[in-house]
Amino acid sequence: MRSELAVKREASATWQRRAIEVMPGGVNSPVRAFRSVGGNPPFAESGRGAYLKTVDGDDLIDFVASWGALILGHARPEVVEAIENAARSGSSFGVSTAAEVELAELICSLVPSIEMVRLVNSGTEATASAVRLARAATGRPAVIKFEGCYHGHADAFLVRAGSGLATFGEPSSPGIPASTTAHTRVARFNDLDSVAELLADGQVAAVIVEPVAGNMGCIPPLPDFLPGLRSLCDTSGALLVFDEVMTGFRVALGGAQGRFGVRPDLTALGKVMAGGTPGAAYGGSSELMRMISPDGPVYQAGTLAGNPIVTAAGLATLRYLAEHPGIYERFESAGAECSLRLEAVLSEVGLPGTVSHVGGMMGLFLGIEDARNWDDVSGLDQDLFGRFFGAALDRGVMLPPSPFEAWFLMEDHLDGPLAAALDALADALRETAE
Ligand SMILES: *Cc1c(COP(=O)(O)O)cnc(C)c1O
């Protein structure tokens, strides 16, 4: 059954025509422009629960979930009320508030490796600050990241691997001098040998990793990968930094480190922890965090850091999760159900592909049978994905508009909308295979 939903999107198209005149690509973050799937991006009018209502009047079952920042659902009453109360009491001060302390305490109690935390405004800021701290703590210059992992848009992270495993990362964006990425080394996800090689000269301050890769689909770590990184770092004296901006409070209440039992030295958080508002954090042992200004010499600051509206939304979200930890088992079984169902349809219709899930994160890889690292994922069939994406949107399901993005579950998906979405996605796969 193919509905007329979202087929034209005329109101969105009108806004997009105005948008492209005044914002690059018409957007404030590139993937929103739908360049890899084609067509006009829908404009949101409102959200409720699992549904995003567009300015065209369509109600879409939403798996973008603000790129993972929403875990309960759109406009959840608990969070809305907290934000309203905070806004009424003043939207920003230049002094500390009690809510900042409460949020910091809650994060320290929930994330195994965090004893002290600093609140910031974006995931980009959190990872960049964590790496600055790691460099200061070790007195070493180099950083190892993994091909296909995303840590925000700070200069040092915008590198691509050169031929083989390049010792020096080559900038992947103009505007970044090669000297800025000269200390960024690129290893292969799920490949410990590639890391050992890059650690050998003793110049590495930090190994930064998404413990579940979520910016090249959803790729779980192989069982020995995270423990192996821990011991390689211990041997070499490099700090292990988990970028849990996406996985924090999403793959388990204690994040990936809680789930897999591996403790990083430093952790970056964002997305879920701010309940859909612009907030993030980084933290680690008290010993390391006391190196941050004004306790220590490592400078890092923010005019709006710890903002009352952000802390209110974060506290409401994290308190709800802490009080309802069963949500993670429900995500797990929902993810498993989605994987089974979609894989069954893939083989029924004869499309090559594989589905992965970890907690409230999922990935559908069309065109490849194995997804362990960037080498695998770079074989994705983008054209096939574009057609599937359009067929899903026509049936009222909003997927992230790129084959390299993870899909996100929200609590409000679990009763009802998810079953409806699976039926629509199954139909969309059948249409894609025709
Ligand atoms: C989203 C994301 C970031 C960047 O966070 P922003 O708030 O967009 O700056 C960093 N790391 C990971 C793993 C992310 O998913």
SSE layout and pairing:
Blueprint: H1 10-22, E1 44-48, E2 51-54, E3 59-62, H2 77-88, H3 98-110, E4 116-120, H4 123-138, E5 142-146, E6 159-160, E7 170-171, H5 178-181, E8 184-187, H6 192-199, E9 204-209, H7 225-236, E10 239-244, H8 255-260, E11 266-269, E12 280-284, H9 286-289, H10 308-323, H11 327-349, E13 353-358, E14 361-366, H12 374-377, H13 382-394, E15 397-398, E16 407-408, H14 417-433
Parallel strand pairs: 3-15, 5-8, 5-9, 9-10, 10-11
Antiparallel strand pairs: 1-2, 2-3, 4-12, 6-7, 11-12, 13-14, 14-16
Helix pairs in contact: 2-10, 3-10, 6-7, 11-14, 13-14
How would you characterize the overall build of this protein?
The chain has 434 residues and is an alpha/beta fold. The protein folds into two domains: 10-64 and 353-433, Aspartate Aminotransferase, domain 1 (Alpha-Beta Complex); 77-323, 3-Layer(aba) Sandwich (Aspartate Aminotransferase, domain 2), CATH 3.40.640. Helices cover 37% and strands 16% of the residues. The chain has 14 helices and 16 strands. Strands 4-12-11-10-9-5-8 form a seven-stranded mixed beta sheet, sandwiched between helices. The protein has a four-stranded mixed beta sheet with strand order 1-2-3-15. The longest helix has 23 residues, at 327-349. The radius of gyration is 21 Å and the shape is globular. The two termini are 15 Å apart. Residues 122-124, 127, 150-152, 210, 214-215, 243, 245-246, 270, 280 line the site of pyridoxal-5'-phosphate.
